[in-house]
TrEMBL record:
Gene3D superfamilies associated with the record: Glucose-6-phosphate isomerase like protein, domain 1, Winged helix-like DNA-binding domain superfamily/Winged helix DNA-binding domain
Gene Ontology molecular function terms on file: carbohydrate derivative binding; DNA binding; DNA-binding transcription factor activity
Protein name, UniProt field: Transcriptional regulator, RpiR family
Leader peptide range in chain numbering: none
Domain of life: Bacteria
All copies of domain HTH rpiR-type, residue ranges: 2-78
Keyword Membrane included in the entry's annotation: no
Span of domain SIS: 125-265
Biological process (GO), any one: carbohydrate derivative metabolic process
Keyword DNA-binding: yes
InterPro entries cross-referenced by the UniProt entry: Homeodomain-like_sf, HTH_RpiR, RpiR-like, RpiR-like_SIS, SIS_dom, SIS_dom_sf, WH-like_DNA-bd_sf
Length: 281
């Protein structure tokens, strides 16, 4: 059975404004939507029953009942996964069980993120990376670690990159950006105030923006030119940002690898040139 939430995320850009209102309400309130009648859903999304039905059919569902059943099944699956994954860190748990649970969490994060990949969007991002004068990386907290990892990879192949751990310096970087730069924003929630401030500055300077963020509508996602979605099954209040970090680095690794593949000869030369080998004593 189709995953209704993934289909909504994938098809959102093809929807009309009123259909997007339905789509966004379901993505933001999936549990409420799973129990709403078609009239309640229309009221909550400021649309009409006919718009709700039209939106659902664009997702490939035959009708409202089929969609609701698929949504209920998906939410039950997520709850089951969340319960299993959220208990990965337990008091006095055996190391063997911890290994099994973290492996399951990591695998699920990669598989779910892979389902959200859009090849056309990735190809456009690779082209933007090549054409840009500078890559500007932004991230706070655990997302900064993912951004820094990408920064180090692109730096090795001689792309001019900037990153700052201090948020004030990130904001200055955004204010000094130009349309010839490319900003790569890494944020799980898409609501972090500091990152949002940087994104607004980037927009003022007409700097292209790629957002690596969870597949739920957010201020950062709305302001970005290209979205690369990570799995959204990790709760906002997280114990270790495990799934989100794995998903983020998975996406940046794909971006980097796709870029290297397109510009293979030059990148290979740069990787050889920048390899640091310590003398054996």
């Amino acid at each position: 059975m189709k995953n209704p939430l993934i289909h909504l995320k994938e098809k959102r850009t093809e929807l009309s404004p009123t259909e997007k209102s339905v789509c966004d309400y379901i993505l933001l309130h999936p549990r409420e939507a799973s129990t709403d009648s078609i009239h309640q859903l229309a009221k909550e999304s400021f649309s009409s029953p006919s718009t709700v039905l039209r939106t659902i059919k664009k997702m490939g569902f035959n009708g409202f009942r089929q969609f609701k059943n698929a949504l209920i099944i998906e939410l039950a699956s997520q709850e089951s996964n969340f319960t299993r994954h959220n208990s990965a860190i337990k008091k006095s748990e055996s190391t063997k069980n911890t290994i099994r649970k973290i492996t399951s969490l990591s695998t699920t994060a990669l598989l779910e993120t892979s389902k959200l990949m859009e090849v056309e969007t990735l190809d456009r991002c690779v082209t933007l990376i090549h054409k840009s004068n500078r890559l500007l990386f932004f991230g706070i907290g655990a997302s900064y670690c993912s951004a820094k990892d990408a920064y180090m990879k692109f730096l090795r192949i001689n792309k001019t990159c900037l990153i700052n751990e201090d948020w004030h310096n990130q904001l200055i970087t955004a204010r000094n950006s130009t349309p010839n730069d490319l900003a790569i924003i890494v944020t799980y929630s898409g609501h972090t105030e500091e990152i949002l401030a940087c994104v607004k500055e980037l927009k003022l300077h007409h700097t292209p923006i790629i957002a690596i963020t969870r597949c739920i509508p957010s201020p950062v996602s709305d302001l970005s030119d290209y979205k690369l979605y990570t799995t959204s099954q990790e709760p906002i209040v997280r114990s270790g940002a495990i799934a989100s970090r794995i998903s983020q680095q998975y996406i940046t690794d794909i971006l980097y690898s796709a870029y290297v593949s397109v510009h293979y000869d030059n990148c290979l030369q740069q990787l050889t040139k920048t390899q640091i080998i310590k003398d054996k004593k």
